[in-house]
Amino acid sequence: MQTHGLGVKMSYALTLSVSFGKEQSMSGSTETPVKPVHADGAIFYMHPHPRSPFSEAVQVGPVLYLSAMIGLDNNGQLVEGFDGQVRQIMHNSQAILERYSLSLDNVFKATVMLTDMDKWGAFNRIYKPFFQPTRLPVRTAFGVSGLAYGAEVEIEFQAWILGA
User: Fold this and answer.
1) What is the spatial distance between Cα 94 and Cα 99, in angstroms, rounded to a whole number?
2) How far is the C-alpha of 12 from the C-alpha of 32, rounded, in Å?
3) How far, in Å, CA of 164 to CA of 138, rounded?
4) Global pTM?
5) In which domain, by residue range, is 7 found?
6) Closest by Cα among 34, 78, 28, 84 to 58
C-alpha cells in the first residue's frame, strides 16, 4: 500500500470496476496503474482507461472529486434499465472510493443528472439505502436532454478525506 497526496492510499494489487466500466488489473498487467500527478496544489489521478479524456479523480486539499459516471458494467456496456443503471453507478462509485481508502460514508456532495425527472422517486428509492440515514450527502439534481451512450442517469460525487 502506498500513500499519495493527503492520505489517499492506493493498492496496486487489486482488480475492480472503474467508472469507464472496464475491469482493470492493477498487478501483472500491461496496463498502467493510476498514478498521481501533482500540479499546483492539486493531485490528478488519471483515469486507468488510456482513451479516457478525463481524470478518474482529482484531490484538492481534503476533498476528492470523482468524475461523473454512468451505469457501465465490467465490459463497458450500459446496463439495462434505469434501476440497473443507478445500482451500477453506486457499485462502481463504491469500488472507486475504496481504491482511495474511502467509502460512501466519505461522500458529502452528489450531483445527479436524470433524463426523465418522473423517475425522481425511483432514483431516491435505490440511491438512499447506499448511505447511512444520518449521513446523507447534500445533493443537486437536474433534468437533462441526453447523456453519453443513451444513459438515463449520471452521478458525480465529492468525498471528504478524513485527517487530510
Assistant:
1) 9
2) 10
3) 21
4) 0.77
5) 2-160
6) 34
pLDDT in tens, 121-158: 999 999 999 999 999 999 999 999 999 999 999 999 99
Q: What is the DSSP letter of 88?
A: H
Cα distance between residue 45 and residue 43, in whole Å: 6
Residue owning grid cell 452528489: 110
Which grid coordinates are listed for 52?
A: 479516457
Q: Alpha-carbon distance 41 to 50, whole Å?
A: 24
Stated as kind and residue range, the H or E segment containing 124 is helix 120-127
Task: Say which CATH number the domain at 25 has.
Answer: 3.30.1330.40
Task: State whether residue 159 is helix, strand or coil.
Answer: strand
Structural domains counted in the chain: 1
Look up residue 46 and give its three cell numbers.
488519471
What's the distance, CA 17 to chain centroid? 10
User: Residue 153: helix, strand or coil by DSSP?
Assistant: strand
From 160, 164, 132, select the one nearest 64 (Cα to Cα).
160
Please state the φ and ψ torsions of residue 29, each to the nearest 5 degrees.
Answer: -120, 160
Grid cell of 118 as nine digits:
418522473
